[in-house]
Amino acid sequence: MDKTRKIGILTGGGDCPGLNAVIRGAVECCLNAGIHVYGLYDGWKGALTGEGRYLNYSDVDEIQTTGGTILGTSRTNVMKIDGGAETVRARMQQLGLEGLIAIGGDDTLGVANTLRKMGLNMIGVPKTIDNDLSCTDVTFGFDTATNIAMECIDRLHTTAESHSRCIVVECMGRHTGHIALHAGLAANAHLILIPEFPKSFREISDFVKSRHVRGKKYTIIVVAEGFELAGASNDANLEEDAFGNKLLPQKDLAKNLSEMIEDDIRNDDTMPEDCKNFECRYVVLGHIQRGGAPTCADRVLGFRLGVKAGQLAANGEYGNMVALSSNSIVAADLDRAVTERKAVSPELYAAAELIFR
Ligand code: F6P
């Protein structure tokens, strides 16, 4: 009988800079401990079909320098498929996998947590550019995403100023505004709108008007895609993905906001004459925030998390999520991580508000 220990690894949900660094850390650590690592393709889809390949040292050589994931990803939800969980169990048995390292956000880790409760050996690795997972100080991918968004917003200042325009910049962040807040603060956005702190359209448009009246002819507004105007719910009728997440691009948030602000200012008779032709533009940063090479911080954090996941597997310590806590990599409670969301704190938003003028 083959006594070689084998473990599976998968990446699920939206891709994220640093995924390959995690894979490398985990594979290096497991191989050194004599454990074979089977890379499942396309997230939970691979755990259902068994499609994948064994990863050797040469497969992971240098991959921490690249974005995306060498294993592919998908938003396949095992729990939405008839007999899905039992199929995963059977596939793991068939492949001889004693456990799985699941790298993902709340959706992917939620599936891992349910499988864990059914008695399967799981180790979670928290991943999302949105940085909204609890039990870890920060998620890898967030640093890259915020730096990309910051650079884009930096660039928008000069063109907005030259044309005396208001530009609405939409960042990712479907439930929370970590990316918008950090990138907006760093790039000196004049107003930052995030789901945690709703504002009314009147407050927003009056803010742009007040800047204009004070001689500040251009305005940069950074908005997180999950933001909703106070008192209005424009997300209710949107389609959903397999995990019940609303498909937010369908609501055209930045486009609608910029058109509403333009109309409101042009049609306000109390505003100076030049406002009759006031112009707004919008930019949706979208997947640019997730693409390309990870920053140094994300490569190192991803690698450290991967190594810890590999160590836990080598020790047969399953059932937890690896996490960053006060600059140490620790084992954290998977159950808590998937049930509590990390929002932008009131203190941080209040600090950012100091520059809203
Ligand atoms: O993974 C998180 C995320 O990047 C969100 O910020 C965003 O709303 C979503 O993924 C986009 O998903 P998709 O790549 O499926 O369009």
Protein architecture, described:
The chain has 357 residues and is of the alpha/beta class. The chain has a five-stranded mixed sheet with strand order 3-2-1-4-5, sandwiched between helices. It has two domains: 6-141 and 294-339, Rossmann fold; 142-291, Rossmann fold (3-Layer(aba) Sandwich), CATH 3.40.50.460. It has helices spanning 19-32, 44-49, 57-60, 84-95, 106-117, 142-163, 178-186, 201-213, 253-266, 296-314, 334-339, 346-353; strands at residues 6-11, 36-40, 52-55, 99-104, 122-126, 166-171, 191-193, 219-224, 280-284, 320-325, 328-333. Helices cover 39% and strands 16% of the residues. The relative contact order is 0.17. Helix 1 packs parallel to helix 10 (296-314), helix 6 packs across helix 7 and helix 8 (201-213) packs across helix 9 (253-266). It contains twelve helices and eleven strands. It binds 6-O-phosphono-beta-D-fructofuranose. Residues 13-14, 105, 128-130, 172-174, 225, 248, 290 line the site of 6-O-phosphono-beta-D-fructofuranose.
Can you lay out the helices and strands and say which pair or pack?
Layout: E1 6-11, H1 19-32, E2 36-40, H2 44-49, E3 52-55, H3 57-60, H4 84-95, E4 99-104, H5 106-117, E5 122-126, H6 142-163, E6 166-171, H7 178-186, E7 191-193, H8 201-213, E8 219-224, H9 253-266, E9 280-284, H10 296-314, E10 320-325, E11 328-333, H11 334-339, H12 346-353
Parallel strand pairs: 1-2, 1-4, 4-5, 6-8, 6-9, 7-8
Antiparallel strand pairs: 2-3, 10-11
Helix pairs in contact: 1-10, 6-7, 8-9
Bound molecules: 6-O-phosphono-beta-D-fructofuranose.
6-O-phosphono-beta-D-fructofuranose binds at residues 13-14, 105, 128-130, 172-174, 225, 248, 290.
